[in-house]
Amino acid sequence: MRVLTVSTVNVNGIRAAAAKGFTEWLKATPADVVCLQEVRAEPDQFPADLRAPEGWHTLVAPAAAKGRAGVALFSRVAPTTTRIGFGTPEFDTAGRYAEMHLPTLTIASLYLPTGEVGTERQAEKERFMAGFHAHLSALSTEAAQTGRAILICGDWNIAHDKADIKNWRANQKSSGFLPEERQWLTSVLTEAGYADVVRNLHPGVDGPYSWWSFRGKAFDNDTGWRIDYQMASANLAALATSAKVERAATYAERWSDHAPVTCAYDWDLAAVPAPRSPISIVGTELLEDSAAAS
């Protein structure tokens, strides 16, 4: 069985990241597919050596709003088809979702809206979540019927559980850790049938965090959030063998405020493997209310 390695990272601007070390990271990575979020550039604005890097097939979904959002995928295997957006007109040109269909795998790069409590940004996030859930369910059904694997990688902008955010007590009323957002993510793992690969391979621990603010000592103190996920269909999750966050050794070596999340799977991109018992889904401890949680 050939090992499939996938990395996902919010680059916080592809041009800025390239100048700080992303290009060198891409050249060195063993990943078969790399999913990027927040590229903030049109394809012709990518640094020259990232527009069509040797050995990679690329798909870029820029945002209609210039200089914002944008997602991309780099794959060593040629896609059979590609897709931008998930069929919701409001978001199909927002640079938040792109999908590659490889021979036995549908893989997508997701940048879910950030949100801000009490504003239109939060309402936008909620509309996105509602429309996207339907697409996730449809893909999950496809996996069950055909044996293809589904893998949704990206910046989901929601910390699912207390273990996924260092300062959870102070953020219970903040976008990204609201009870309704966390419940929605639970429904992705239950109703839609996905598995959180990193959490399943790292149960019962804080983190591993994938985002730290550039401000203050958040990185040095590991005061982070785990919001970058690889959400896999059950057939693929059952074959996950490793998951890690590629945290920079020092603050100075960071090329984004996020770190790559890299997972390996015993999955052949050329042939669907024989069925294996699905991996169990690790549950989440949802906070009933602030008083009960404190």
From TrEMBL:
InterPro entries: AP_endonuc_1 (IPR004808), Endo/exonu/phosph_ase_sf (IPR036691), Endo/exonuclease/phosphatase (IPR005135), ExoIII-like (IPR037493)
Endonuclease/exonuclease/phosphatase domain residues: 8-258
Cofactor comment: Probably binds two magnesium or manganese ions per subunit.
Site positions per UniProt: Interaction with DNA substrate: H258
Domain of life, source organism: Bacteria
GO BP, one annotated term: DNA repair
PANTHER family according to UniProt: EXODEOXYRIBONUCLEASE III
Name of the protein in its database record: Exodeoxyribonuclease III Xth
Native species: Catenulispora acidiphila (strain DSM 44928 / JCM 14897 / NBRC 102108 / NRRL B-24433 / ID139908)
The organism's taxonomic lineage, starting at the top: Bacteria, Bacillati, Actinomycetota, Actinomycetes, Catenulisporales
